[in-house]
Amino acid sequence: SAVHDLTGGLGIDSLAFSHQVQKVHYREPNAELCSMAERNFHRLGRSQIECVNEAAESFLERAFNGGELVYLDPDRRLGEGGQRSSLKRMQPDWAFIEQLMDKGWPLLLKLSPLQDLTDLIQRTSGKRTICILERRGECKEVLLFCQNAKAEEENVSIVLAEVQEKWTTQK
Fold first, then answer.
1. pTM for the full predicted model
2. Are residues 144 and 109 in contact, defined by beta-carbon separation less than 8 angstroms?
3. Would you give the distance in Å from CA 158 to the centre of its chain?
């Protein structure tokens, strides 16, 4: 099994995935960030993470492979340090995400805690699971897992998950 992290950044999500899957394909358009993440992965002994210095949009050229997941944590920050909660104003943009859905890739998106769930449901189709991660009654993240976007059957599940105080990772 493999994960394609199309919004690599500092690589923390790719690092977490590397403990759960056989291969992680980290992609980051910023050459400096990509190089730093690659060095850190090497130092941490995470040889199953492949680093590629390219924009997420170049991924559209790939053919779908079963058993693979596409992960995106779109940039939601404004220049002033604020947050965007609109699907229209994130990077990569919603049009790109729709293209991935149309190609049949199973997607996992990390979205703003302020995300409008009604809007999210209306913009997606097929089988979807929305996971709201909360800690002490406060929403920390909204995750959207969607697959079979072209399926005629609509299915939306909403799950609330409590984030625990202590984190552990498997080795």
1. 0.86
2. yes
3. 17
Query: Is 84:113 a contact under the CB 8 Å cutoff?
Result: no
Tens-level pLDDT at each residue, the chain (171 residues): 899 999 999 999 999 999 999 999 999 999 999 999 999 999 999 999 999 999 998 888 876 677 789 999 988 665 545 455 567 678 888 888 888 888 888 999 999 898 889 988 988 888 899 999 999 899 999 999 998 766 667 889 999 999 887 655 554
d(CA 20, CA 3): 10
State yes or no: cis peptide before 92, omega within 30 of 0.
yes
CA distance linking residue 57 with residue 41, whole number of Å: 24
Sheet with 68-72: strands ordered across: 49-52, 23-27, 2-5, 68-72, 107-111, 138-147, 127-135, 155-162
Of 49, 53, 62, nearest in space to 20 by CA: 49
